[in-house]
Design a protein that fits this description.
6-stranded antiparallel beta sheet; 3-stranded antiparallel beta sheet; 0% helix; Yippee_fam; zinc; Yippee/Mis18/Cereblon; metal ion binding; Protein yippee-like
Length: 122
C-alpha cells in the first residue's frame, strides 16, 4: 500500500489556540475545531465518524470512487500531517443529487481523534 510522503511533521500548523478542538489520537496534531461538526451520525471505515465543514493539518491521498452506505462517492483518504495516520476521507463528488451536501466536507473517524476542550484550570 502506498502512503503519502511521510516527512511532513514540520508542516503541522499550531492553530485554534484556546478553542475546543479535535486532535490526532496518535500525535496530538490539531485537526479541526469542534464547532465545525455538521453531524455526529456518520460511519467511517472503523466505526462512527463526524462530518466536518473543514479540517487542518491533513494531506489528501489518492482520489477514488468508493461505494459507501449512501451510494458511490468520489473521495480521497485524509492523513495526519504529523504522523501519517489515516483519519478519514474528503468528499470530492457525490453521484446522487441528495448527497451533494457532502461535497467539500470531511468525514473524520471518531476513534482516531481526541477531543481537547482547552479548559484552563486555575
Amino acid at each position: 500500500m502506498a502512503f503519502p510522503i511521510s516527512d511532513t511533521k514540520s508542516q503541522v500548523l499550531s492553530t485554534y489556540h484556546g478553542h475546543p478542538v479535535f486532535e490526532c489520537s496518535k500525535c496530538s496534531a490539531v485537526i479541526a475545531l469542534q464547532d465545525e461538526v455538521i453531524s455526529k451520525a456518520f460511519s467511517g471505515r472503523d466505526g462512527r465518524g463526524y462530518l466536518m465543514h473543514s479540517a487542518t493539518n491533513l494531506k489528501l491521498g489518492k482520489k477514488e470512487d468508493r461505494a459507501l452506505l449512501t451510494g458511490v462517492h468520489t473521495v480521497a483518504d485524509v492523513y495526519c500531517l504529523g504522523c501519517n495516520e489515516r483519519l478519514g476521507w474528503y468528499y470530492m463528488k457525490a453521484s446522487d443529487s441528495t448527497q451533494k451536501y457532502k461535497e467539500g466536507k470531511y468525514l473524520l473517524e471518531r476513534e482516531r481523534l481526541v477531543k481537547n476542550n482547552n479548559w484552563e484550570l486555575e
